[in-house]
């Protein structure tokens, strides 16, 4: 048994399945580059057969990433597998991940297939995939709720067909650590050819135990791959969180005794990038990447940490990429300083034109805000990336009036399909009035299912970062906007969400 733990990141596939978290090709590529910097072993870049957009995203990632294996998901059929293989053709190292459900419930109600048919299809799929690439992962979907005898038959058969990784998903987050760990152990002990494959865990967080279950799968079960996402992003309560599993294994190396390739100093930048791209805000008390994760508020703790850091700290903030909230740039900083700071933050721009556009936004921000923090820079880079996406609506300017006892009013100028338009409306408050002013012209009819504001660098002088989640005709999208004026940030977020609503294509659900 190897002492290396493979980190398989599925932020761009399972994470993206979270309603509203869908990303464009360029956004996915940017995150993939950050994952490569983080040195994740495998990047699951998407589900190529689900839509042309996802095919192109996986293709772009496969062509760009050199140091990590790039993986594409496919259902267990020839068409999906061929699509995945085509999308991965340019990869330095390619993996096809094929899956089919094996639990009685899923086979009967969802697939309407008998167990024997599922077994046959799983074998055919792995055989077909192995003819395309050497690295094939197989997942029995809802594996944890499957009959163990049947699961053993399926897994033994797919290993015999050449599956190199066997992943055991707890698709619905039903497992508890000890039981899940023993489940993996039992499978490995009972399947005669189990040593021919690497065993992997894939846990969802519905009961808040995804990380604990994954660790038990590793410790008790002997799994040597963990599937996880940045910030624990994912459908419902999300997936096992990359930063938590990595820091648990690293901090408690005395217990787990495992090596990791991850360069942990890029964790915080990856977390921010994913949060700002998807609009899924990280809760302040989230382990490792939450704003409070290393903050010591109580006097006793502060005193202890000042005397000896390890009195209350088990990890060093700088080891995961936290830098103190320091003023990094200002109005007088030039393009080179800006470029250097982007490099320090691990952000690479795709072209000089993108860099120039981001620098222009930086100058505009620096005119309005004397102190520019790392968080501001990351937010404006995100905004720049968003604005590269099929922009049908774009913010120009906003005036609003609110006074106690009077109904707030807003007048907003924005471009709609390349033409400047002016919308006016009243509302419950300035934000409501501004968004209604946009809607009075766009008439999207979308329902707002989430609105949240977050101060990027923690004070009233900071930029407000707003997330707006819209739902229309079964689609859910997030828009993110940042500005020192939260009403403007809200308008930008709303327009960003409308852009996504207009550009998003239909896709097939991986677990539908
Ligand atoms: O949770 C799950 O079962 C999955 C599979 C597609 C691997 O994400
Ligand atoms: Zn999953």
Automatic annotation (TrEMBL):
SUPFAM superfamilies: 2-isopropylmalate synthase LeuA, allosteric (dimerisation) domain, Aldolase. One of its GO terms (molecular function) is 2-isopropylmalate synthase activity. It catalyses: 3-methyl-2-oxobutanoate + acetyl-CoA + H2O = (2S)-2-isopropylmalate + CoA + H(+). Keywords: Acyltransferase, Amino-acid biosynthesis, Branched-chain amino acid biosynthesis, Cytoplasm, Leucine biosynthesis, Manganese, Metal-binding, Transferase. Its EC number is 2.3.3.13. Residues 394-512 are annotated as: Regulatory domain. Residues 5-268 form the Pyruvate carboxyltransferase domain. Gene3D superfamilies: 1.10.238.260, 3.30.160.270, Aldolase class I. Pathway: Amino-acid biosynthesis; L-leucine biosynthesis; L-leucine from 3-methyl-2-oxobutanoate: step 1/4. InterPro entries: 2-IPM_HCS-like, 2-isopropylmalate_synth_dimer, AIPM/Hcit_synth_CS, Aldolase_TIM, LeuA/HCS_post-cat, LeuA_allosteric_dom_sf, LeuA_bact_synth, PYR_CT. The keyword Acyltransferase applies. Mn(2+) binds at residues 14, 202, 204, 239. GO terms for cellular component: cytosol. Its cofactor is Mn(2+). Homodimer. This is 2-isopropylmalate synthase. The lineage of its organism: Bacteria, Pseudomonadati, Pseudomonadota, Betaproteobacteria, Burkholderiales.
